[in-house]
Amino acid sequence: MWLNVFGSDMYYGGFRLSDFGLMLSTFSLEDEEELGMDYEVIEEFVGHNPVPMYLGSEYTNKLELTTTIIKSQCGRRNYDAMFTEHECREVLRQLTGFRGYRDVQIIAGDASMDELYHFRARTRSVSYLKYGDGVVGIILNMECDSQFAWSPEHEYKYEMKAGTVYTLINMSDDLYNYLLPTVIITTPTAINSWTFTNLTDDNWESTIKNIKANEVITMDSGRSMLTTSTPDRYMLNDFNMHFIRLVAGLNQFKTDHDCSLTFRYSLPRKVGVV
């Protein structure tokens, strides 16, 4: 169930271990660990057919991380390795003083990670590792918001010409769900009706009407939000509620007017090494 975390440093929201003279460690001798990738197949039998009909699948748990925080001076002298009561309180204040999920980054000390993973995690439980009557380690158990880690944010900008087909490769590790990017849209001239068509997604069309020249429209597909740089404009009256979405792998798309499009998104990652 728990994925052991190793690395040279860690960010937890705005809290960085090395800024407090801390580092990551582990005292676990287990070689086997869970990745939070358990999933359930959804199927049903129709009539007397002995072969079930596949209806889909879903993940059944979240990714959970565990690590042990020690002092950087550990190994010099015994009393240097011990946390004081004040130090324990300060670490717990930073790790448990916030509600909800926070951005967590693990900084690898070698080349075992091919990119910097981000986790959206919250502290689930904290315990002490003691030596004699002193605290030598703070064991942190975290629960992520999903079964995935996340890549750094990707940004791609396209200067679109009307009717020209463009390509974007979505390298998400989630092969069965749409990637929902934030898309920034600007047009050099006023447009009565603008349409983005994803040809790969069964010609899925996103249409916005009454766009002003040089208006900046931000479509946050993940949060189903549409905002504009034009004050006091109610955008949903001019939108068909088809937020731009990307399928896994190849996406080919076009627009019916010249415009500038900027895609921003983080990719779901099935973590192999942390």
Structural class: mainly beta
Instruction: Say how many strands there are.
Output: 21
> Into which percent range does the helicity of residues fall?
under 10%
Count, helices: 2
Report the order of strands and helices: EEEEEEEHHEEEEEEEEEEEEEE
- Low-confidence segments: 29-37
From the alpha-carbon coordinates, what is the Rg to the nearest angstrom?
Answer: 24 Å
Average pLDDT: 82
Q: So what's the oligomer here?
A: single chain
The general outline is globular
The main sheet comes to:
8 strands, mixed
In whole angstroms, how far apart are the ends? 14 Å
Strand content: over 45%
What this model shows, in words?
The chain has 274 residues and is mainly beta. It is 6% helix and 46% strand. The chain is built from 2 helices and 21 strands. The strands form 5 sheets. Strands 1, 2, 3, 4, 7, 8, 9 and 10 form an 8-stranded mixed beta sheet that branches. Strand 15 (191-198) and strand 16 form a beta hairpin. The radius of gyration is 24 Å and the shape is globular. The two termini are 14 Å apart. Residues 29-37 have low confidence and may be disordered.
